[in-house]
Amino acid sequence: MFLFTFTVFLLISTCQAGFPVVVNTWAFIKATQNAWTTLQNSNQAIDALIEGCRTCQSLQCDFTVGYGGSPDEEGETTLDALIFDGNTMNMGAVGGIRNVKDAIGVARRVLENTDHSFLVGSLAGDFAHKLGFPNESLETNYSKELYNKWKNTNCQPNFWSNVIPDSTTSCGPYVPKGENSKCSLRHRFSDPLLTNEVRTEEFGVFNTENHDTIGMIVINSESHIVAGTSTNGANHKIPGRVGDSPIPGAGAYADAEVGAATATGDGDVMMRFLPSFLAVELMRQGATPTEAAQVAVDRIAIKFPTFFGGIIAVNKNGSIGAACNGMEKFPYSVMNSTTKAPVIEYAICQ
Q1: Fewer CB atoms inside 10 Å of the end CB: C or N, the chain?
Q2: Nearest 5°: phi and psi at 201?
Q3: Cβ burial, residue 105 (10 Å; 0-12/13-18/19+)
Q4: Going along the chain, which residue ranges are E strands?
Q5: Tens digits of per-residue pLDDT, 231-271?
Q6: Separation of alpha carbons 161 and 145, rounded Å
Q7: Is residue 19 predicted with pLDDT exceeding 70?
Q8: DSSP 3-state assignment of 289?
Q9: Nearest to 246 by CA among 108, 68, 59
């Protein structure tokens, strides 16, 4: 059923299976280390995940996590975060939260102090402020420079399509093209999910400098499995956009009976396929973590062959696998009882 070749990955993988374990997307090893230290000191999986994601928020990892990065079309940075508890199947998430730096901390408050799962936008910020989180600007000199450079290059790249003026050469404001236009919203592209046709143009907006997420999985010594994400989203996004990161089953998913998965990359495409949920369900059916991650990636690539993204899957025994598309190789960071420090592993994209 799972006929794939993973020889290259296995040859470059050095970490042995086992738990406790911390694994996260990209070479964010300081986050890995801090999560592991917290896990060793407390054996609390949620505490460790919070510390790991919070480390990246503070360090502004690649300027794609935390404040001061990925300004939207108005120059504002907003944040998304998710915590998914695989033992209780409970979650807490925030999307598009404004004026709060600790997005993962607010997601924890949603998880532990409400009966809700997901709060969004300015009202998520109000919720955070009521609980004592500071009201802080997320703008920095770097984000202002990034925004001004984008404005001065005719707002390129951006996420608009089928509008006037031409979004590939001009800034807005935009209006939809006429219904009778050959490039109207309805007629420009066939729906790739309803036909065998796919869009083959390059997804030039997402790449290794705009991958937008730390996704982390933690398993403690008592098999408590949690997964989570934190991000400032996509550079120059349309205000109000929320990507895959805080969406359960897309950005991350966990089930203590099976394992967990997390995803990173072109969230607007990836969320449509719920790749983290799919990877966990494939492991439930007997796939290895590497097989599960690869099938989840392939499912997206059938419709969007050039999409940019990576998926990490971990089973309940601590075995780790990963797969990717749209890049040469996908780095992720691992620490467990067999390593003396965080180890950067690579999945080779097929």
Answers
A1: N
A2: -65, 155
A3: buried
A4: 21-25, 79-85, 90-97, 118-120, 163-164, 175-176, 214-219, 225-231, 252-255, 259-265, 309-315, 320-325, 329-336, 343-348
A5: 999 999 999 999 999 999 999 999 999 999 999 999 999 99
A6: 25
A7: yes
A8: helix
A9: 108
**To which residue do tokens 């790449």 refer?**
207
Task: Say if residues 115 and 262 touch (Cβ distance below 8 Å).
Answer: no
Residue 104 sits at the vertex; the CA angle it makes with 98 and 109, to the nearest 5 degrees, is 90
Cis amide leading into 165 (omega within 30)? yes
Listed in order, strand segments (DSSP E) in 129-246 are: 163-164, 175-176, 214-219, 225-231
Nearest to 70 by CA among 188, 171, 159, 184: 159
- For residue 171, what are the CA distances in angstroms to 151, 179, 185? 8, 22, 19
Q: Which residue has the tokens 């996004």?
A: 237
Q: Which two tokens stand for residue 169?
A: 């050469």
Computed from CA positions of residues 267, 271, 277, 281, in that sequence, does the dihedral angle turn out positive or negative? Answer: negative
CA–CA gap between residue 44 and residue 145 (Å, rounded): 40
pLDDT tens-digit series, residues 172-231: 999 999 754 444 333 333 343 333 333 334 444 555 555 568 999 999 999 999 999 999
Contact present, 98 and 58 (Cβ < 8 Å): no
**CA-based R_g, the chain, Å:** 20
Report the amino acid identity of residue 97. I
- The CA distance from 249 to 247, in Å, is 6
* 313 beta partners: 261, 321
Contact between 227 and 86 (Cβ < 8 Å): yes
Side-chain half-sphere CA neighbours of 27 within 13 A: 9
CA–CA distance, 310 with 333 (Å, rounded to integer): 13
HSE-up of residue 198 (Cα within 13 Å, Cβ side): 14
